[in-house]
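Example record

One chain of 236 residues, shown exactly as stored in the release files.
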Amino acid sequence: MTLLSVVKDVCASVGIVIPTSVFSGLAGDRTKQEMLSLANEMAQRIAYDTREWTKLKKTAVLSGDGTKVAFDLPANYKRMTLRGDVWRSTSALQPMQFIPDTNEWIQRRANNWYSSWGEWTMLGGQMLIQPVMSSNTTATFIYMDKNCVQLAGGGTGDSFLTDNDGFVLDERLLKLGMLWQWKAQKGSPYAEDMGTWVDALGQAQGADQPAPILVGRLPISSWTRTSTAYPWPVPT
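Predicted structure tokens for this chain:
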């Protein structure tokens, strides 16, 4: 589905005129402007706020040169994953230590203190790594891609630019999300539509990556010929 097809479906469902184009005549059409704004907001909300989608996880590799300390982040960088480990190629067993407090980072540099596995922090939109990585050393980490739109002209972006652009995730989620949010903004009953979106979102989230493993090396399933020994909720 394209942006135009999603908008057409939403317009048909809410009972407004179905457009032949979203971008043609956009400047003078309030409804098209609202639809485009809603499509961008909902696409970004689904991509950024609901889950760390596997489609949006990317790998970055920073290469040392013997002098460089501050490294630019990838152009499509949105944020670190929740775990946010940074692995130095010289240590395969332990990730580098994250120093969240800038003052502590400065203090450690002033005292020439270092973790045995290396240290990193974020400052000024860059990743700082100490001690300096040699020319044959790299730092690798996973981050979330900010580009949730598949551009019709090629590549990806963080907002829709043409009628034929698509959503990189399930476009039905975008349609259902726009539907309930449009009704909410117009003061119409939207609880049932929101519930449908939440159900679809939960289904997509559950299928996005394998089920968690509590004990052992394989998920519990029929083909492993295993059963649940403790069928009650896990204590927290």
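Notes: The mean pLDDT is 91.
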